[in-house]
Design a protein that fits this description.
The chain has one domain. Helices cover 86% and strands 0% of the residues. It is built from eight helices and no strands. Helix 3 packs antiparallel against helix 5 and helix 4 runs antiparallel to helix 8. The longest helix has 37 residues. The radius of gyration is 27 Å and the shape is elongated.
């Protein structure tokens, strides 16, 4: 075999090897980004359920206050249910929008940026507001049921008991978060706030980033 022919053969083999390596890297990337996409599915369905619950609360709250305009207590409970349902709807709609607009074919840095935006919203906005609201939202639900049975919602004893119960729950929540952060477990608090789906998706994207750097 002449030298020129050997060079052409080696060049062709190198091209084929480069093509195979590129294909393998592409398949590996798709597999890893696929794990990130799959990790977000529970969050997607959870947020879809939250969206439905939020809409249901808005509807129920509207019916409650619209049919009890003469009862100030029930009217107030209906308006609170309306507001909380709207809040849940806004949160879930925003999260679903962010999930839907993640382009897994984009550079991994862009995907990570989108994921970080979703994570930051849940950690800094959604979870804290839901946690605080959760300490008190049961009060109007209870009051609405009591009012339908003819109880006086504005009696000082009932009001003080309800507010004190909500305050105790809020203080306990704040104390747990404060202790966790003081003990160096702040990252655990943030991971719990973000949700397991986002934590797993970010770990899969970190693998993609390491693979591409390597």
């Amino acid at each position: 075999m002449e030298l020129d022919e050997m060079k052409r053969t080696w060049a062709a083999m190198e091209l084929r090897l480069d093509g195979m390596e590129s294909l393998l890297r592409s398949e590996s990337r798709e597999r890893r980004t696929g794990r990130a996409r799959a990790a977000l599915r529970p969050l997607f369905w959870g947020q879809s359920l939250q969206l439905a619950v939020g809409n249901l609360l808005v509807a129920c709250g509207a019916v409650l206050w619209a049919t009890h305009l003469h009862q100030s207590g029930v009217l107030a409970c209906g308006l609170v249910a309306n507001a909380y349902g709207l809040l849940l709807t806004i949160f879930s709609a925003r999260n679903l929008y962010l999930i839907h607009h993640i382009d897994y074919a984009a550079p991994v840095l862009d995907i990570q940026r989108r994921m970080a935006e979703l994570c930051a919203f849940r950690v800094r906005v959604e979870t804290p507001i839901n946690a605080v609201a959760g300490c008190f939202i049961w009060i109007p639900v209870l009051w609405a049921n009591l009012a339908l049975y003819g109880l006086d919602l504005w009696s000082p004893g009932l009001i003080h008991w309800a507010l004190a119960s909500g305050a105790v729950g809020l203080i306990a929540l704040a104390a747990v978060v404060w202790v966790m952060r003081r003990l160096g477990y702040g990252h655990k608090v943030d991971e719990a706030s973000a949700g397991r789906s986002i934590v797993r998706a970010q770990a899969a994207l970190d693998e993609v980033a390491r693979f591409e750097r390597g």
